[in-house]
Amino acid sequence: MNKKAIHSWVMYDWANSAYATIIMAAVMPIFYSEVAGKHLDSTTSTAYWGYTQSLSLMLVVLFSPVLGAIADSINGKKRFLRFFTILGVMATTCMFTIDEGEWLWASLLVILGTLAFSGANTFYDAFLSDIVPEHERDRISSRGFAFGYIGGGILLALDLCLIQFHNFFSFTKVQATQIAFLTVAIWWWVFSMPLFRHVQEKKRQPRHASPKQLTQRGIHSVIHTLKSIGKYPELLKFLIAFWFFSDGINTIIKMATIYGVEIGIGQTDLIAALLITQFVGIPCTLLFGKIASKWEAKPTLIFTLIIYLIIVILGYFMTTSIHFYLLAIMVGFVQGGSQALSRSIYSRLIPLKRNAEFFSFYSLSGKFAAILGPAVFGLVGQWMGSSRAGIASLALFFVIGIIMLAKVDVTKGKAESAAADTSHLVM
């Protein structure tokens, strides 16, 4: 293994987790509710935040499979990763300009930033198969998420100090929060540099074609993948399971903070609890990587999803900041492990020769599902007049996901993907 390339790949998780932590989970949801959505009632601002997340993910669903297929055909994973990283950095920089009542501007920038964040992750994930041998993927994938927790957690702690002690820096709280958004953009860009310098994708003979031809070829490849995915029954079962449980996980990440604002938990408690989540997640993500190497990845993943189901049930009854702290610790315990193990299991089930294309489908499956979760959360909340019913609705996603995942035979799935690679070589 190329240790420098692996460390550089891991550092990208450190870089972009600042966006996931501060924009998607911790600071922006509070800012959206209290500043950008100042003239909206709390349930409406929560719903609008959910719709914003759903729309951004809908765009990811439309673009990522085609982009992945094109990237495979032109050895272009790194170029697409760089493009989406720059786009995300620019969108996050513009969040510095969001002011009171500008919920629509905030939504547009979050949609653009989340599109870029998710698009970049499609190509970042696809490098795992290029640079890490199969027997090391659980460990390296878990290390990536652990570094993400560290990086996101450090910047969140710094930004929490900036916001909490804004008077010391001669800022208003709004100005301090706007500067926090700017720090995310800088952090994301600076710590992405090692990957762009040291990680190389496996080269294949490029296919020279015009942008129009590449797009047509990409669309054709996606259609071909949709038709051929039935040849990988275990992969298909895993994708369906992932569709459900990933929806539940993503909705918790994106809606927990604004839900806490709605039920009256203060900003300091909300951000501090999410900071705890980050640092609980560091050792626990590594721990689950080691457990999976001894206990196998699938049963370990199922265990983390059962914990999530318990979190959702307890979240319905949450009323105080102490409750939020306890649930944040539980989320930190399983969040990184569940995501890392999902990624490593999936990497075993796909044909190696088409990994960027199939990782786009991985992104597609999760993001398509994630369109539904925040939207259901918002719709149920508006319908019932409270978001408690919205949080309870997530239990169904985890129950179905667990049942479907239990039916996946990973060993058989590996054989199916290996057979596909062999037939590809024969052809």
What does the model show?
One of its GO terms (molecular function) is transmembrane transporter activity. Its main location: membrane. The chain crosses the membrane at residues 12-32, 48-68, 80-98, 104-124, 145-165, 177-196, 235-258, 270-288, 300-318, 324-346, 358-383, 389-406. By secondary structure, this protein is mainly α. The chain has one domain: Up-down Bundle (Growth Hormone, Chain: A), CATH 1.20.1250.20. The chain is built from 16 helices and no strands. The protein has helices at residues 3-36, 42-73, 77-94, 103-131, 137-164, 173-190, 193-198, 211-228, 233-262, 267-295, 297-316, 321-349, 355-384, 388-393, 395-406, 410-426. Helix 4 packs antiparallel against helix 13. It is globular and about 60 Å long. The two termini are 29 Å apart. 56% of the residues are buried. The mean pLDDT is 83.
Provide the CATH superfamily.
Answer: MFS general substrate transporter like domains
Q: In percent terms, what proportion of residues is strand?
A: under 5%
Q: What's the total count of β strands?
A: 0
When the domains are counted, the total is: 1
- Helix content estimate: over 70%
General form: globular
CATH fold description? Growth Hormone, Chain: A
Subcellular location: Cell membrane
Organism: Thermoactinomyces mirandus
Transmembrane segments: 12-32, 48-68, 80-98, 104-124, 145-165, 177-196, 235-258, 270-288, 300-318, 324-346, 358-383, 389-406
Membrane topology: Multi-pass membrane protein
